[in-house]
Write a structure and sequence with these properties.
Length: 384
């Protein structure tokens, strides 16, 4: 009888494989101790829920679901390719050139109560840019860009809202231009498409990112054009540019490092919400003020600067603009004027959804029917 009990117990232990379960359990605990408690994407969403829920109020749920949904893209036509043929092909996809459509509306009348329109320089959009998008609610995708008959790529796929800072910069033929934080290169490419750059300095502190910038330039811009535009790619500390080349440029683009909100919700790699990058994230507004101040110092008196981010945070947007302007006034006795971009917002409101309550500048907010952005941009004129 005893032997039957022992035999039955052994049989049950074999079926339960109790020892094996314990080993597996211990193994899982060991590995769990080396993994982050929460992925960076989840930390980013928690952070956004707390901060943007307060900042945007009732708008936040709509922005939130749009950020978590698939992004829309635009196709920036490469003017150095067979551009008319490329435009025809994009039109056959039922996409349309949102820049040309906006310009075809003509100049807008001043709002009631306004006594004068903005100065021509602040009205001007950078010329020669063609960017195709699908209409609101159309979630079609563009096919990947391909090598064209002239040996360069036909078009560049980008968040179409990323073109707005370049358009707002209002380049004129013969301008000397600085792209202070240029990589990965979409906005630099757009600056070259305008055919206005007498000199173009494209800078980014990260040498790996300037490597990507070089790749974009080689894929889209012929060598003779790069030589003609005197494109200079550097990896200097942008915060020191005002000391290196002060009062030197007609137009400066300051597209600063930021929390890259959409990327932070979708990609673990290079995510600024990783716990190891907490200090870096907290220091972003200070870095952004320093970079914008350097860009303003590098601008000639009478020249223009556009500051931009792909973040929704007013701490990285309006507050940075105001902080940099105060810094220049207090430390350098330099006066800077923020340009009114109301007309600009109205020009492109058929394509993008704009936040209506920015203190300064304009903010494209993601919307399921027009899922571009986020993209903040503010245009300034250095007066003295």
């Amino acid at each position: 009888m005893a032997s039957l009990v022992v035999s039955g117990a052994r049989h049950l232990l074999r079926r339960a494989d109790f020892a094996k379960v314990l080993r597996r359990h211990r193994h899982k605990k060991k590995w769990a101790a080396t993994e982050p408690k929460f992925p960076a994407t989840r930390l980013a969403l928690q952070n956004f829920d707390m901060t943007y829920g307060v900042q945007f109020g009732d708008l936040w749920p709509s922005i939130r679901v749009s950020l978590l949904s698939e992004q829309k893209y635009g196709a920036l036509v490469n003017n150095f390719a067979a551009c008319d043929h490329v435009s025809d092909e994009l039109e056959q996809l039922h996409a349309r050139d949102f820049v040309n459509k906006a310009h075809s509306h003509g100049e807008l009348e001043p709002e009631s109560g306004q006594t004068a329109a903005p100065s021509p320089a602040s009205w001007a959009c950078s010329p020669n840019l063609r960017c195709f998008t699908f209409t609101r609610g159309d979630v079609s995708r563009f096919p990947p860009a391909r090598l064209g008959s002239l040996g360069v790529m036909d078009y560049y796929l980008m968040d179409a809202a990323s073109l707005l800072p370049v358009l707002a910069l209002g380049l004129q033929p013969g301008d000397t231009v600085l792209d202070l934080c240029a990589a990965p290169g979409g906005k630099t490419l757009a600056l070259l498409q305008t055919d206005c750059c007498r000199n173009l300095a494209a800078n980014d502190l990260s040498t790996s990112r300037t490597g990507r910038l070089h790749k974009v330039l080689h894929s889209y811009v012929p060598q003779d054009v790069r030589d003609k535009s005197r494109v200079r790619v550097t990896s200097w500390d942008g915060r020191k540019w005002g000391e290196l080349e002060g009062d030197a440029y007609d137009r400066v683009l300051v597209d600063v490092p930021c929390t890259t909100d959409r990327h932070s919700l979708h990609e673990e790699e290079n995510n600024i919400f990783q716990r190891s990058r907490k200090k870096e994230r907290q220091m972003l507004p200070m870095l952004q003020v320093q970079l914008l101040a350097a860009g303003l110092l590098a601008t000639k008196p009478g020249g223009y600067v556009v500051y931009s981010t792909c973040s929704l945070s007013h701490l990285q947007n309006e507050y940075v603009v105001q902080g940099a302007i105060e810094l220049l006034a207090n430390q350098y006795n330099i006066e800077v004027r923020v340009e009114d971009l109301t007309h600009f917002r109205k020009l492109f409101m058929d394509t993008f959804s704009f936040f209506p309550s920015c203190q300064v500048g304009e903010l494209v907010i993601p919307n399921l029917l027009a899922n571009f952005g986020p993209m903040y941009f503010c245009k300034m004129c250095r007066l003295t």
